[in-house]
Amino acid sequence: MAFCPSCGSKLDDGTKFCHSCGAAQETTNTYTNNTNNTTQNQGINIVDSTSSFDKDDIEKNKVLCAVAYINILFFLPLVAAPESRFGKFHANQALILLIASAIIGTAGGIVTNIWWHIPVIPDFIKASVGSVLSLVFWAAPIAGMIFGIVNAAQGKAKELPFIGKFNLINK
User: Fold this and answer.
1) pLDDT tens-digit readout, 106-156
2) What is the Cα–Cα distance from 5 to 131, expressed in whole angstroms?
3) Which of 21, 49, 118, 156 has its CA 20 to 30 A from that of 40?
4) Collapsed DSSP state (helix, strand, coil) of residue 39
C-alpha cells in the first residue's frame, strides 16, 4: 500500500495522481506508513524501522550494534546495553544471520563433498567448480554481515533481506 507524500492518503500501487489532493506521485517503489519504511528493490523488501527508535539510544549504541554482526558477537548489545531497543533489534538480526550462515555453510559443505565424490569428473575441474561453489555459498552471509554492519554503524534499523523478518529476541 502506498501513501501520498503530500496529504497522507492511501493510494493503490502504481497510482500516478492522488485521488484526494491531486498531487503527482513519483513512480518509486517506496511505501511509507506511520512507523516503518519499506523499500522494495527488485522484489526484495527491506523494512526500515529507524524512526521508531530513540535517537539517543541509536547514537549511544550504534558502534556496539555494528560489532554484533561479527559472527558469534550477536550477544554483545544484549550484555553491554540490555535496555537498548536498538541494541536488541541488531542483536536479533545478527543472531538470525549467524543461524542462516550455519545452515548455508552446512549445505555448502554437503554439496561440495558430494561434488568431490563424483568419480567421472577430473580433479582439476572438481577444484575449479568447488572453489566457485564455496564462493557462492558464502557470498550471501558475507553480504548480510556487511549490510548489517553498515546499517548499524549509520544508525539505521533495517531488516536483513529475506531473513530479517524473524524475531528470536524480544524487541
Assistant:
1) 999 999 899 999 999 999 999 999 889 888 889 999 999 999 999 999 999
2) 48
3) 21
4) strand
Q: Are 42 and 27 in contact (CB under 8 A)?
A: no
Q: Where are the alpha helices (DSSP H) in the chain?
A: 55-67, 76-80, 85-116, 123-153
Distance set, CA 71 to CA 90, 97, 98, 137, 148 (Å): 13, 8, 6, 16, 12
Q: How many CB atoms lie within 10 A of CB 84?
A: 21
CA distances 31 to 131, 147, 155, Å, are 40, 21, 21
Residue 52 φ then ψ, to 5°? -90, 0
pTM of the full structure? 0.73
The number of residues making up the chain comes to 171
Cell of 162: 529475506
